[in-house]
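Slide 14.
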Amino acid sequence: MPSVRTQFTVGLFVTAGILIGIVAFIWLGASRYLERGRLYSAYFDESVQGLNKDSPVKYRGVTVGRVLSIEVAPDSRLIRVLMEIEQAYSLDENTVAQLKAVGITGAMFIELDIASEKDKELSPRLSFPSEYPVVPSKPSEIRLILEGVDDLMKQFRSLDLKGISEKTRALLDSAGKTIAEANIKELSEALRKSIERFNAFVASDAWDKIPASLEKASEEMKNITAKASETVDSAKRTVSRIEMIAADTAPDLKEAMLNTRRVTSDAAGLFSEARAALKGSGKSVAEITDRLSSVLEGLESTVERLKELVERLSEDPSGILFRYAPGPSKPEELF
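Slide 15: predicted structure.
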């Protein structure tokens, strides 16, 4: 059984250890309160509900101090928050303070950051002297959101909703009347039928024959043009021959007239072929047919004049010859 002295020694040792632990715990926990830091004041023109004494002061998320006191400023308008910043940090005029919330609990802390020119303009102006250096402040994000919503509501209330509603109604009535007058249903039906007819035409054999018809018409036009050119040249040669043999014998004159009649018949046949080719070429070659028609009209006029000359030569060859005897005519004058 241990003696009384041993028991006393153990009890004294345990008691001393407990006391030392308590003192160390208190010292380590209260050291930051016992350490004297730099004091700064921040003035807020909004509610600081949720911000309490000893709330943290952070610089971009890093704790650099704590809140010492919260009270109403001397002007009875602003709220003064006295902050104690650790000795290792110092604040200047380019620092701005802002209230921020911690999650959804409603607790607040002070966030420090670098101030911009706009932040300095938002900081409240002081009408009294401050005992400690002043850190400019700016509205909290919650206040900015509420102010934005309030401004939006004011602009919404300033709108002439009644006038806008009346104009919209009038516009809709006008649009409905226009649609009714346009008879959209009938137009849509007509358009549908047109599309159906076009699809039926495309699906038919006539659509496939169009390229071949155009190619055939083009070839016929080339042939007709060549024949027309030959006919004109032959007619010019015949007329020239008539003028040249006007002073020669009658058999030569008779042969020239026969040649002229042959040219006239060839030209008439050429016109018939041209008209048939033009009718079969379709509307898709309208421009080509217009040009060919004008050429054929000129040829037809020429042949008519040749016919008249032949008839006159057949009826009274001597009269025609003597009439042109005084001065030889040029072939171009007959055209």
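Speaker note: Confidence is low (pLDDT under 50) at residues 324-335.
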